[in-house]
Amino acid sequence: MCQFILEHERVFPVSRMCAVLSISRSGYYAWKKRVPGPRETANASLAAEIKAVHTESRSTYGSPRVHATLAARGMPCGRHRVARLMRVQGLSGRKPRRRRPITTCQQPGAPVAPNVLNRDFSAVRPDQKWVGDITYLDTDEGWLYLAIILDLFSRRVIGWSMANHMRTSLIEAALDMALASRGPIDDLIHHSDRGGQYTSAGYRDRLNDLKVVTPSMSRTGNCYDNAVAESFFGTLKTECVTRRFASHREARRAVFEFIEIWYNRQRLHSSLGYLSPEAFELQHTLYINSVH
Questions:
Q1: What's the pLDDT tens digit per position in 167-182?
Q2: Phi, psi (deg, nearest 5) at residue 34
Q3: pTM of the model
């Protein structure tokens, strides 16, 4: 009966409806204070959706990615509203940790390639510019090293390898995966730092054998020349490597799941218009097919 009065307040006087329905006005107004309004109800519903998206993101998304996910699911709402409701629930994006040990050891006298990339991290097609780098993972069984090759067009990790050493074979395995996954390549820039693995004769010969690859290297001690690879490692350390792993096997499993299931296929990337690398490449393929 109180609900009836609430729905007809603009039609009939509250006092008359209370008298007809044998309800005291004080009782009705006490009930009304306990009933959430439409805005409060909508916020409660949106807050539940926000929490679900945040949980699906492994508790890593901040308000921009949560907002983009909701919009993609047909639930348009203001970004500031999403941020406010996240604060109310104590939800936030995961913050990067700083800083990592140096894994770049330049060999004195080793030949280096010029910085052809020159911090131009844009690409208009897949397999136009690749960047490679190495990072470390801490485990109870000792250090485990991860080498990656990332396509600057889609920010997709197209090749990666892990080992308990940083010998040249580590980055060669990542290159082999990239070449196997991408098929024929043409007119490609391959950028890296000046670490001994990348300046080694073996790796230089591998790139030279491809003939269509132009090597490029960062300037000495300048991490910004390979900023996209550094950014990926920052994301990895923030969202995946949140603790010391018990074993190499556990670390390998976690990295595989992060790269192949989450990062490449699901995680929204701000520089890609909040698409995943896989979705961005698919969008490009569909566009190319539509204009030919």
A1: 999 999 999 999 999 9
A2: -85, -15
A3: 0.73
